[in-house]
Amino acid sequence: MARLIEELRKLPGIGSKSAQRLAFHILRASDADADSLSAAIRELKVQLRLCSICNNVTDVDPCIYCTSATRNQQLICVVEEPTSIHAIEKSRSFNGVYHVLHGTLSPLNGVGPEQLRISNLLTRVQNSPPDSEISNFEVILATSPTIEGEATSTYIAAQLHHANAALHVTRIATGIPAGSDIEYSDEVTISRALEGRRKL
Fold first, then answer.
1. Measured between alpha carbons, how far is 121 from 166 in angstroms, rounded to an integer?
2. What's the pTM value of the predicted model, to 2 decimals?
């Protein structure tokens, strides 16, 4: 029991109490449910891998986005985690490809550029069209508007410009979410919303 609790505690967002509750739930579960859980974990590790181009979780390499003939291969959206891709796809407003970093820069937690998947993004950019055709090539930095997300975007933008000075590098707009009230928004959110205003 102690070993299972310790292993469950390694999961993100799971503390000691949550790990205990999960362990006791598994103990009370039927043998069939326990076998199904362990089989699902084994299958996940065996069948899924990271795409060699964009680092998305996939069962085929390269992934369906990187090999799609209908997606714009000259439009790369850089996201923190694979779960962000699902959120963007739900909007049905993006038809490019992705690049997953698997985290953000966080020196306090020991996460530097080497721990993120930035190097193969730079390789993708270096293999981009020559300057004469670069006008249609764009990298969109879609990291979260947190301190770590902003630091990561700033660092990547500098690296991308160093790799190809003519490259278009953009940042997603941030501001007041749809359906919310301005009076409940903080100063930073309102400031960014005003900076990102557009002509109607």
1. 16
2. 0.79
